[in-house]
């Protein structure tokens, strides 16, 4: 009888431990939220643009400089692999619910490859100490908030003198992914390396290299609003359409486009 009671006790304990382990790995913590920060880029006239990020932090809005580390593992990413809506995760962290301020990116090293030659970029002190982006975001319990850092390589890298030296002057914008939309299209005569642009007023908000194998392009992570979409290739053949509306969560498809 005691042996049977012992077996029942062991079986009950094993089932209890198995149940706790399953809950911990599948349920998570519903009292906190998660922030996930992605990186994307527009095209540039380079072969590679390698940027080394050493830290990403978020500021808890408490009226003081209270920075919370999202990721402090150094990582090097080629910006030119992150176009046409492709992203790479810079960091992800569970945070207490609440209103947060800016995020801050620290860049420790950068290099560009031009015609097979690698040049080290001069990184400004503001980038090594931390670039502050955005105006704030909200963390809700049980919800993942996704932020996208758009790093404009073309406007961030400048040739100095006789193009034997390059300087980095980062041009970035921060978008809450859930508050953005996109524009897509397909260039019929795409053989001469066309580029697509989304322009708001006089500001080029996003750009994308038209795909060499299909002619398709995606201008992603655009705030809702009206844009002029322009496409131009190396032979100066062009397309332009004004008043293209972007709505949150949707992709506006322009269909087939012929450059003239």
Account of the protein in words:
This protein has helices at 2-26, 125-129, 153-156; strands spanning 33-42, 48-60, 67-71, 75-78, 88-95, 98-114, 117-122, 131-133, 137-139, 144-152, 157-160, 165-168, 172-176, 180-187, 195-200, 203-209, 216-223, 225-232, 238-246, 251-257. The chain has 260 residues and is mainly beta. Strands 2, 3, 4, 6, 7, 8, 9, 11 and 12 form a nine-stranded mixed beta sheet that branches. It has a four-stranded mixed beta sheet with strand order 5-1-10-13. The longest helix is centred in the first third of the chain and has 25 residues, at 2-26. Mean pLDDT is 88; it is low at 1-27.
**What fraction of residues sit in β-strands?**
over 45%
Question: What is the makeup of the main sheet?
Answer: 9 strands, mixed
Distance between the termini: 91 Å
Number of helices: 3
| Counted beta strands | 20
Mean pLDDT over the full residue set? 88
pLDDT under 50 segments (min length 5)? 1-27
Which sequence of SSEs, written as H and E, runs from N to C? HEEEEEEEHEEEHEEEEEEEEEE
Radius of gyration: 24 Å
What general outline do the C-alpha atoms trace? globular
Helix content: 10-25%
Structural class: mainly beta
Q: How would you summarize the topology of this molecule?
A:
Layout lengths: L1 H25 L6 E10 L5 E13 L6 E5 L3 E4 L9 E8 L2 E17 L2 E6 L2 H5 L1 E3 L3 E3 L4 E9 H4 E4 L4 E4 L3 E5 L3 E8 L7 E6 L2 E7 L6 E8 L1 E8 L5 E9 L4 E7 L3
Parallel strand pairs: 1-10, 7-12, 14-20
Antiparallel strand pairs: 1-5, 2-3, 2-4, 2-6, 6-7, 6-8, 6-9, 10-13, 11-12, 14-17, 15-16, 15-18, 18-19
């Amino acid at each position: 009888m005691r042996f049977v009671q012992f077996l029942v006790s062991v079986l009950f304990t094993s089932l209890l431990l198995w149940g706790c382990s399953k809950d911990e790995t599948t349920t998570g913590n519903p009292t906190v939220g998660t922030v996930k920060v992605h990186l994307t880029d527009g095209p540039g006239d380079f072969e590679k643009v390698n940027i080394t990020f050493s830290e990403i932090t978020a500021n808890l809005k408490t009226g003081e400089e209270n920075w919370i580390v999202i990721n402090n593992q150094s990582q090097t990413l080629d910006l030119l692999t992150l176009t046409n809506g492709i992203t790479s995760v810079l960091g992800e962290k569970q945070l207490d619910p609440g209103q947060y301020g800016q995020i801050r990116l620290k860049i420790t090293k950068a290099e560009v490859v031009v015609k097979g030659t690698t040049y080290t970029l001069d990184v400004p002190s503001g980038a090594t100490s931390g670039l502050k982006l955005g105006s704030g975001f909200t963390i809700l319990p049980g919800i993942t908030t996704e932020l996208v850092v758009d790093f404009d390589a073309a406007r961030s890298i400048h040739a100095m003198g006789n193009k034997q030296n390059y300087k980095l002057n980062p041009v970035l914008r921060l978008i809450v992914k859930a508050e953005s939309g996109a524009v897509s299209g397909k260039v019929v005569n795409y053989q001469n390396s066309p580029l697509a642009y989304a322009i708001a007023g006089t500001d080029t908000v996003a750009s994308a290299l038209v795909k060499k194998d299909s002619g398709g392009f995606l201008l992603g992570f655009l705030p809702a609003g009206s844009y002029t979409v322009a496409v131009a290739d190396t032979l100066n053949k062009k397309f332009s359409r004004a008043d293209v509306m972007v709505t949150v969560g949707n992709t506006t498809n322009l269909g087939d486009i012929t450059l003239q």
